[in-house]
Amino acid sequence: MIPLPEPYRVKMIEPIRLLAAGERRARLAEAGYNTFLLRSEDVYIDLLTDSGTNAMSDAQWSALMRGDEAYAGSRSFEALQAAVRDVYGFPYIVPTHQGRGAEHLLSRSWIRPGQLVPGNMYFTTTRLHQELAGGTFQDVICEEAYEPSREAPFKGNVDLGKLSALVERHGAEKIAYVAVGAPVNMAGGQPVSLGNLEQVWRFCQARGIRVVLDGARAVENAYFIQQREPGCSKMSVARILREMCLRADACLVSAKKDLYVNIGGFLATRDRGLYEKAMNLCVVYEGLHTYGGLAGRDLEAMAVGAREMVQDDWIAHRVGQVRALGERLRELGVPIVKPIGGHGVFLDARAFLPHLSQDELPAQSLAAWLYEECGVRAMERGVVSSGRGPDGRHRYPKLELVRLTLPRRVYSDAQLAFVAEGVGRLFKRRAELPGLRFVSEPELLRFFQSRFEPLPVAARA
Ligand code: F0G
């Protein structure tokens, strides 16, 4: 199947190069077998993340020139505020330097120590901010999310049974808010249905519990709703996004995803009390509430990106490109998470490297050997990302995944065919790929900075 042609043409290019095999091996060892520690210069095709790696449009580049760099009351803030009001429908917005800045403000505003935060699977920075504020994350995602090979349209859905059992056990006052990621990054970019959002919203409204949407890639979720949910095919993605937001009290946005920018984020809400609290904390941690750690030009680029992102043909192309890569891999027999997500293709590292135990770090190893094979950089989403619990022990997640994430408007189909070929070659010689072990590990969000070494072959079972 030929992927959807790009709804744009290329105006500027950035050269990349593929290092020779021996050099890649040396660079990987220098980086401690952690793809986060590779130099970008040494990477050929960079599928580490879709976060901040987007190509901006000519309209966004032009908007940069309009940036109003005033410390207070910037015109560019007003442009962003107007775009967020139109596109997401929330009246109040607090800009932040990126998504985790918004997570920080929200967690400190709405979590009291000892409270629980139910959510549909954890996200690394989100959970850490909840914990730093004294909260405890509780997973209430549906069971299908843990089965990589199971085809289901909305594997990101909240399990209402799990949520209501939790609320029953602890009481509504113990719940800080329910956090709904739409789509769910760590489950493979799996979406949440509008019906499920509605159920969660009603359940929470009836009990006085607040709902927070993690809208980092909400447009991709809206697109899946349009394509898969009965009764939604005639609605525009723009309309679906607003419908999603109507079922939340607040929304956290890392603009580095959907909004086609390289930096930025915000907290948007209809709750005046949250707005005032977050706006005040913003001054302490991010910068004045009309720039939130960003330059005026960044706010302008976000304002333009927010309007571009909801155009149906743009988002159809974006998700279509991810699907095309996934289909190529599927044809090669490579085990991937199904259905294919909106921001990347997730390799199932347990099925790819069945000879490795979770302590041999299958996903971390696969990401390392993929770089060595073809210069492609991917990201581990397994036990290394999951970190350690309060008892100091590894938190073993059910999923061991390697994410091939597609930056928006950056790579061509030929480049993605090269990626698929490289993964396919690695898959053919999977039996000989060794595991890794930790050499060093920082205290927080260890996946970013840990170092590893290959396990000696003798140590393998
Ligand atoms: N929520 C989700 C679902 C995310 O995927 C991210 C970031 C954040 C919040 C935090 O936003 O990075 O702007 O501070 N995800 C990136 C990724 C890092 O590669 O998936 P941030």
Overall description:
The chain is α/β, with parallel strands linked by helices and 461 residues long. It has two domains: 21-50 and 312-460, Alpha-Beta Complex (Aspartate Aminotransferase, domain 1); 58-308, Type I PLP-dependent aspartate aminotransferase-like (Major domain) (Aspartate Aminotransferase, domain 2), CATH 3.40.640.10. The protein is 39% helix and 12% strand. The chain is built from 16 helices and 14 strands. Strands 2-8-7-6-5 form a five-stranded mixed sheet, sandwiched between helices. α3 runs parallel beside α11 (296-308) and α4 packs parallel to α5 (124-132). It is globular, with a radius of gyration of 21 Å. It binds ligand F0G. Ligand F0G binds at residues 49, 51, 98-100, 123, 125-126, 181, 185, 214, 216, 254, 256, 265.
Compact summary:
The protein has 461 residues and is an alpha/beta fold.
**Which value, in Å, is the CA radius of gyration?**
21 Å
Q: What is the count of distinct domains?
A: 2
How helical, in percent, are the residues? 25-40%
Largest sheet: 5 strands, mixed
CATH superfamily of the largest domain: Type I PLP-dependent aspartate aminotransferase-like (Major domain)
Strand line-up across the major sheet: 2-8-7-6-5
| CATH class descriptor name of the largest domain | Alpha Beta
Poorly predicted regions = none
Could you name the CATH topology of the largest domain? Aspartate Aminotransferase, domain 2
Mean pLDDT: 97
Primary descriptors:
alpha/beta; Aspartate Aminotransferase, domain 1; 16 helices; 2 domains; 14 strands; 461 residues; Aspartate Aminotransferase, domain 2; single chain; binds ligand F0G; five-stranded mixed β-sheet; globular
